[in-house]
């Protein structure tokens, strides 16, 4: 069941979104040849701990009984890894790409976002993959202004990716988000069988979605590695992933995981000061 959010609840989700945005800025400052994903993950773990924010990914239970929980605060997906890559000690190299996905709960509300980074100079075709994936996310945001149902947006996203010569991953989809990271509805980046039926939903004020196109250079097919989490492209070609938490308001869609506006900068300063009164004021905002 889809749970629509009030303006006040969306404002509180914006706070969590600002934390996620800042986490991605910290990660971007640390990325480069020679850096390790484990070190970047540790830095974000420390940042979240300082704020008293709860990482959404760390110890997230596996859907299969007996499999290990996810061990980190970020998914670090390098080159052919599509999603759910586990941070490790392998140094990043010039020409790599790295998708970082992370999320937090703060004040009872969640934020979630992903970015694919180029490590130094990358192949032009790989850069085009990143641009198209980010373009698919931008297209979805733009269409939230004009379309009535998600199926219409998903169809345009998949067509956009295909027209640029890439493929949309169909094994993983976006999701509703609020007090929990994963809420209804499922938000595919293509017109799934379920979306053709009862799983389609209206675009209406109060809807908050984590929209996250995952796009492969070659086949859309994936396979699971032995660690029970890491999903890689079946043909070993690169994959890119971009995500924002986006709210639909009466005035149109709003990204909740982007940089603070001028009006929000003072709130962000309070947040970075990690003062209890500041946090209380922010959570009440």
UniProtKB/TrEMBL annotation:
<keyword id="KW-0378">Hydrolase</keyword>
<dbReference type="Pfam" id="PF00557">
    <property type="entry name" value="Peptidase_M24"/>
</dbReference>
<dbReference type="InterPro" id="IPR002467">
    <property type="entry name" value="Pept_M24A_MAP1"/>
</dbReference>
<dbReference type="GO" id="GO:0004239">
    <property type="term" value="F:initiator methionyl aminopeptidase activity"/>
</dbReference>
<feature type="binding site">
    <location>
        <position position="84"/>
    </location>
    <ligand>
        <name>substrate</name>
    </ligand>
</feature>
<comment type="subunit">
    <text>Monomer.</text>
</comment>
<dbReference type="InterPro" id="IPR000994">
    <property type="entry name" value="Pept_M24"/>
</dbReference>
<feature type="domain" description="Peptidase M24">
    <location>
        <begin position="12"/>
        <end position="249"/>
    </location>
</feature>
<dbReference type="GO" id="GO:0006508">
    <property type="term" value="P:proteolysis"/>
</dbReference>
<dbReference type="GO" id="GO:0005829">
    <property type="term" value="C:cytosol"/>
</dbReference>
<feature type="binding site">
    <location>
        <position position="243"/>
    </location>
    <ligand>
        <name>a divalent metal cation 1</name>
    </ligand>
</feature>
<dbReference type="GO" id="GO:0046872">
    <property type="term" value="F:metal ion binding"/>
</dbReference>
<feature type="binding site">
    <location>
        <position position="112"/>
    </location>
    <ligand>
        <name>a divalent metal cation 1</name>
    </ligand>
</feature>
<dbReference type="InterPro" id="IPR001714">
    <property type="entry name" value="Pept_M24_MAP"/>
</dbReference>
<keyword id="KW-0031">Aminopeptidase</keyword>
<dbReference type="GO" id="GO:0070006">
    <property type="term" value="F:metalloaminopeptidase activity"/>
</dbReference>
<protein>
    <recommendedName>
        <fullName>Methionine aminopeptidase</fullName>
        <ecNumber>3.4.11.18</ecNumber>
    </recommendedName>
</protein>
<comment type="function">
    <text>Removes the N-terminal methionine from nascent proteins. The N-terminal methionine is often cleaved when the second residue in the primary sequence is small and uncharged (Met-Ala-, Cys, Gly, Pro, Ser, Thr, or Val). Requires deformylation of the N(alpha)-formylated initiator methionine before it can be hydrolyzed.</text>
</comment>
<keyword id="KW-0645">Protease</keyword>
<dbReference type="InterPro" id="IPR036005">
    <property type="entry name" value="Creatinase/aminopeptidase-like"/>
</dbReference>
<feature type="binding site">
    <location>
        <position position="182"/>
    </location>
    <ligand>
        <name>substrate</name>
    </ligand>
</feature>
<feature type="binding site">
    <location>
        <position position="243"/>
    </location>
    <ligand>
        <name>a divalent metal cation 2</name>
    </ligand>
</feature>
<comment type="similarity">
    <text>Belongs to the peptidase M24A family. Methionine aminopeptidase type 1 subfamily.</text>
</comment>
<feature type="binding site">
    <location>
        <position position="101"/>
    </location>
    <ligand>
        <name>a divalent metal cation 1</name>
    </ligand>
</feature>
<feature type="binding site">
    <location>
        <position position="175"/>
    </location>
    <ligand>
        <name>a divalent metal cation 2</name>
    </ligand>
</feature>
<feature type="binding site">
    <location>
        <position position="212"/>
    </location>
    <ligand>
        <name>a divalent metal cation 2</name>
    </ligand>
</feature>
<keyword id="KW-0479">Metal-binding</keyword>
<feature type="binding site">
    <location>
        <position position="112"/>
    </location>
    <ligand>
        <name>a divalent metal cation 2</name>
    </ligand>
</feature>
């Amino acid at each position: 069941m889809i749970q629509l959010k009030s303006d006040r609840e969306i404002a509180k989700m914006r706070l969590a979104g600002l934390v996620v945005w800042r986490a991605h800025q910290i990660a971007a400052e640390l990325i480069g040849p020679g850096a390790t994903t484990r070190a970047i993950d540790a830095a974000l773990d420390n940042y979240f701990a300082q704020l008293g924010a709860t990482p959404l990914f760390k110890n997230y239970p596996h859907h299969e009984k007996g499999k290990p929980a996810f061990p980190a605060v970020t998914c670090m997906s390098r080159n052919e890894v599509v999603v759910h890559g586990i941070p490790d000690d392998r140094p990043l190299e010039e020409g790599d790409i790295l998708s970082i996905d992370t999320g937090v709960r703060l004040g009872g509300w969640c934020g979630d976002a992903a970015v694919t980074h180029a490590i130094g100079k990358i192949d032009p075709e790989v850069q085009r993959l990143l641009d198209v994936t980010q373009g698919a996310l931008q297209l979805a945001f733009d269409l939230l202004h004009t379309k009535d149902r998600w199926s219409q947006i998903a169809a345009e996203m998949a067509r956009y990716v295909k027209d640029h010569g890439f493929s949309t991953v169909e094994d993983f989809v976006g999701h509703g988000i609020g007090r929990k990271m994963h809420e209804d509805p499922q938000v595919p980046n293509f017109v799934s069988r379920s979306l053709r039926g009862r799983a389609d939903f209206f675009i209406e004020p109060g809807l908050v979605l984590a929209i996250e196109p995952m796009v492969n250079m070659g086949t859309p097919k994936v396979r699971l590695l032995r660690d029970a989490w890491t999903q890689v492209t079946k043909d070993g070609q690169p994959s890119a992933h971009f995500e924002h938490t986006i709210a639909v308001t009466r005035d149109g869609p709003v990204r909740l995981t982007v940089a603070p506006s001028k009006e929000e900068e003072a709130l962000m300063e309070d947040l970075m000061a990690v003062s209890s009164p500041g946090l209380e004021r922010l959570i009440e905002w």
